[in-house]
TrEMBL record:
Binding site for NADPH: F11, R30, K102, A134, R249, E270
Organism field: Roseobacter ponti
Enzyme class: oxidoreductase
Subcellular location: Cytoplasm
Protein name: Glycerol-3-phosphate dehydrogenase [NAD(P)+]
Keywords: Cytoplasm, Lipid biosynthesis, Lipid metabolism, NAD, NADP, Nucleotide-binding, Oxidoreductase, Phospholipid biosynthesis, Phospholipid metabolism
Pathway: Membrane lipid metabolism; glycerophospholipid metabolism
A Pfam family annotated for this UniProt entry: NAD_Gly3P_dh_C
Family, as annotated: Belongs to the NAD-dependent glycerol-3-phosphate dehydrogenase family.
Highest taxon listed in the record's lineage: Bacteria
Gene from which the chain derives: gpsA
One Gene Ontology biological process: glycerol-3-phosphate catabolic process
Active site: K185
PROSITE patterns in the cross-refs: NAD_G3PDH
Length: 320
């Protein structure tokens, strides 16, 4: 089975390194100059400095490399996924597509699995999600993530090929639940970072994580997911990691909001657009998503952190 990773950011590079331990893999990036540099130096100095690319990784910017793969891992940011699929529709047709991005498309409110189905209907697809920082995966620290695929036999094949001795993949057929867990944990991480950054304390963070988890589970169940998925790696697991580590870009954006500092707009922070997309969708559907609503307001500068927290605390008292 020929495997390629599309997108040589932090995660795509880390996945290629991990998968190359058990077989050859192609790492595809769109920029020919960057590809040549990566191939020569064998290091992604910009996105993943210090991690060496093993010889079993072929670096390419040739679109034919996409067409030659049986399985393609899509490691581009969520808001870029549709454009990537549209640009390479011909090469991607018939491939098994594994979305590795976490988020909701701002324009449509769709998750990665829906965007793939929209652009390339009928493509076999899966989702790779769950708690795992690119650097940890690249340097071979023990990591467990979720491979979600509605087609159970295909899920088993992908689980087997993409796992390694240090990256342990668990299988699920609940693609909706896995996608929503991965998308929404980033929103809660922004809220947690904001609380810590503003000096509101660890108790506030614990409250946000727990009520965030309730919000994620409620929404996912309403969309047909199994609530148990949200208690697994792709939900609770990733929520814990992202809400407690300064390695997380979503958490760091929250910290800077709480501290009143600026944040580099070039950094990939999926939770910002996802909060806005989910807030609109929740309002339209009449879903109650208070944490998502305040994060959307924070990233749009409609509220500051003290106002956001006052808003959450002044809601009517309820049963847990
Ligand atoms: N970094 C992590 O630890 C990590 C872990 C798990 C999941 N993810 C998810 O992986 C996705 C990508 O994150 P990342 O950390 O690799 O981001 P990144 O910012 O490091 O890299 C994104 C890469 O995508 C490329 N790209 C953007 N648009 C493209 C296009 N149209 N065609 C081809 N390439 C394009 C960029 O050039 C860049 O190299 C996100 O959804 C993120 O949530 C990241
Ligand atoms: O850096 P973040 O916030 O995008 O988080 C990376 C991964 O999603 C953690 O599982």
């Amino acid at each position: 089975m020929k495997v390629a990773v599309a997108g040589a950011g932090a995660f795509g590079t880390a996945l290629a390194i991990s998968i190359s331990a058990t077989g050859p893999v192609t790492l595809w990036l769109r920029d020919a100059g960057e590809a040549e540099k990566l191939d020569t130096t064998r290091e992604n100095a910009r996105r993943l400095p210090g991690a060496r690319l093993p010889d079993s990784i072929t670096v390419s910017s040739d679109a034919r490399a996409l067409a030659e793969a049986d399985v393609l891992l899509l490691a581009v940011p969520m808001q870029k996924l549709r454009g990537f699929l549209q640009d390479h529709r011909a090469q991607l047709a018939g491939r098994t597509l594994v979305a590795c991005c976490k988020g909701i498309e701002l324009e449509t409110g769709q998750g990665p699995q829906d965007v793939i189905a929209d652009v390339l209907p009928g493509s076999p697809l899966a989702l790779l999600t769950g708690p795992g920082f690119a650097r940890d995966i690249a340097i071979g620290l023990p990591t467990a993530m979720t491979l979600a695929c509605a087609d159970a036999p295909l899920g088993e094949v992908l689980q087997e090929r993409l796992s390694s001795v240090t990256l342990r993949l668990y299988r699920s057929t609940d693609v909706t639940g896995a996608a929503l867990g991965g998308a929404l944990k980033n929103v809660v991480a922004i809220a947690c970072g904001a609380a810590i950054g503003a000096g509101l304390g660890e108790s506030a963070r614990a409250a946000l994580m727990t009520r965030g988890n309730a919000e994620m589970t409620r929404l996912a169940a309403r969309r047909g997911a199994d609530p148990a998925t949200l208690s697994g790696l792709s939900g609770f697991g990733d929520l814990v990691l992202t809400c407690t580590s300064e390695q997380s870009r979503n958490y760091r954006l929250g910290l800077s909001l709480g501290q009143g500092d600026g944040f580099d707009p070039a950094v990939t922070v999926e939770g910002a657009a996802t909060a806005r997309a989910m807030d609109s969708a929740a309002r339209a559907a009449g879903d109650d998503m208070p944490i998502t609503a305040v994060v959307a307001a924070l990233v749009e500068n409609r509220l500051d952190v003290p106002q956001a927290m006052r808003h959450l605390l002044s809601r009517s008292l309820k049963e847990e």
